[in-house]
Amino acid sequence: MDFERPYPPDPYSLLPVAATFRLTSTDLVDGERMPDRHAVQHENVSPALEWSGFPEGTQSFVVSCYDVDAPTPSGYWHWNLVDLPAGVTSLPTGAGDGSDLPGGAFQVRGDGRNPGYEGAGPPPGDHPHRYIFAVHALDVPSLAELGLSPEATNAQVGFNVFFHALGRATLMVTYSA
């Protein structure tokens, strides 16, 4: 199959500019290739993430991973972790399995239909995909209070994040099969 197509833009570059803060990882290097252990066909573990410098007034966070290069018009959501308390500023490797989420945090189903982290899995032969990990600082303590639950869609999470984001930090890595 021929996967030749243009590269889509970073979707966050199409949104109104938000305050930025710092997102780092001991498992990932911004702009570099994602280690195999974070891919779905390997260990499928979420990377460690840590953030700092978020805007004053932050009441909660949403953490996501999005494949902008998936061969669909809508990309592919690999992870949406919702309602992390404002006091949580890091996640250890493997937190995306959902076994030990702080406070009232919850995960919605990714595009692979399972809640929690789904590792990189681009089609064999496709160009390297870009995976954007984002941490969104929100002005509300809980999206659940606005009616979101683990049954929410990624679009519903994104819609609510858009209206409540005080800031955003991103880290982009690539992966190919």
How would you describe the overall organization of this protein?
Helices cover 6% and strands 29% of the residues. The chain is globular and about 45 Å long. The chain has 177 residues and is mainly β. It contains one helix and nine strands, in the order ββββββββαβ. The model has no long low-confidence stretch (mean pLDDT 96). It has a single domain, classed as PEBP-like (Phosphatidylethanolamine-binding Protein). The longest helix has 11 residues. The strands form two sheets. It has a six-stranded mixed β-sheet with strand order 1-9-8-4-5-7.
Please write out the topology.
Layout: E1 19-20, E2 22-24, E3 49-52, E4 60-67, E5 76-85, E6 90-91, E7 106-107, E8 129-138, H1 154-164, E9 165-175
Task: Give a short overview.
With about 180 residues, the protein is mainly β. Helix content is about 5%, strand content about 30%.
Identify the notable features of this structure and list them briefly.
three-stranded antiparallel sheet; single chain; Phosphatidylethanolamine-binding Protein; 9 strands; mainly beta; 1 helix; 177 residues
